[in-house]
Amino acid sequence: MLAKVKSGANRGLEMIGIDVEVNVASKGLPSFDIIGLPDKAVAESRERVKTAILSSKLDFPNKKITVNLAPADVPKEGSCYDLPIAAGIISCETGCKIPEKSLFFGELSLDGSLRHTKGAFLLALFAKESGFENVFVPKGSVAEAAIVQGINVLPVENLEQLFLHFTTRKKIVPTLYQEEVNKAFLEAEFNMAEILGQEQAKRAMEIAAAGGHNILMIGGPGSGKTMIARALPGILPALSMAEALEVTKIYSAAGQISPGDSLIRISPFRMPHHTASAVGLVGGGTRPQPGEISLAHRGVLFLDEFNEFPRSVIEALRQPLEDGHLTISRSKEKVKYPARFMLVASANPCPCGYLNSPKKRCICSSRIVEKYRKKISGPILDRIDLHIDVGTVDLQELSENQKATQFLEPSALIRERIIKAREAQYQRFLGDSIFTNAEMKNPHIKKYCKLKKEVEQILQQAGARFQLSARSYFKMVKVARTIADLESSSEIEVSHIAEALQYRFKSEDI
Hints:
With 510 residues, the chain is of the alpha/beta class. It has two domains: 2-166, 2-Layer Sandwich (Ribosomal Protein S5, domain 2), CATH 3.30.230; 192-502, 3-Layer(aba) Sandwich (Rossmann fold), CATH 3.40.50.300. Helix content is 38%, strand content 17%. It contains 21 helices and 18 strands. It has helices spanning 40-43, 45-55, 82-94, 120-130, 142-145, 159-166, 199-211, 225-231, 241-254, 278-282, 292-295, 311-315, 318-323, 366-373, 378-382, 395-403, 411-428, 442-448, 453-466, 470-486, 494-502; strands at residues 2-11, 14-25, 31-35, 64-70, 102-104, 107-108, 114-115, 134-138, 152-156, 215-219, 269-270, 283-284, 289-290, 300-303, 325-329, 334-338, 342-347, 386-390. α19 packs parallel to α21 (494-502). The longest helix is centred in the last third of the chain and has 18 residues, at 411-428.
């Protein structure tokens, strides 16, 4: 007897349809074979499926079983084929009919229950686009799949429950999506009100968060660079629905959505260690997987101790910073991942950290300092919008500020201004497929950032004096547009462009 069950295979951020053909022959020696380019995890499905069916008090045929995963020339990987294989065997053995226009997806435990399986959201998107009506997924993955409306997402706890549904004895009730509004904001490790001094750095971080700009903080040890960066999640707005769907697709493909979780509405904040490899940061592998920069899409990639990263790893950021996406090419596969992230980097001015410090003497030679600076190339620095010198706060000033902490702005208050600025940008870019000022291309700048004569004159003078590149010139306009948005100004004024120029990279910086 032959049964055909529909499933899907993950390819980057897309799904392709897979036909799971199960044949239980009446002749031949008892065996259980899976063909169609299965990997080790798929091949091991034989033992999981057999034991799960027997544990569910169902009969397992002692016959020749052949499972074909079609198309046969597409490599199959992962444990998501356990459920469709088991469904096909149950249908062949019991004669029950598999529901039409249905997809099956999930990993089996030996007791017959189903485990949370990555990629459920991508499968649901594929089901809707391909005209399927039902999606059978593990109960732990149902909230993730139920984000997609217009299809029936059925939570399967175990094979016994699935068998009862097939025989119409007890139907599985589809799950409806319910958004958890209480997870709109991420609780940051630090509050901006806890950061004493460093008002310019905090202001720069506010501008960066409001417009999605890249920022580099340079300062000695203990100056507060890391603390400011870790307070950033507390001032970031929640993702819009369009942004949330983009981020959820990436996390679903990477298997980083926990059981029971659904739509990701919190801006990602990724903080890889400086020993991270280029593949870990950019993504890749035999079967290309998203790296840290894709997992930071529509959020923040914080690189602490920027100079300590290998130069090859830092240089790998060039194209993603410019294009907002990356393509990972392998001999048999090419995958495109989005990577529109906000880069936040912190660095010391020299290896010992005390170059030009008024308190401690630097022990680094000029040659060592020059070698240390060369780890960050000019093209990378040119792609960073805001450059901030974070000086050491005097102990007396710390003591005085400690007494006045109640007068410092908390993160919640700063976030309100940022949300207001982001809303202005959302309205401005409706129909342009971008969300923040940092994403603007030259046509957008020409359309939305018309400069007054006196503003343009100041910008040209600054460009000639500081030898700004064409990229730097337009980045200054973007930053000025964000500063204007924070002040609810429809036009870019002289004060806005003047403040933007304060944060530009100078030749004496690292």
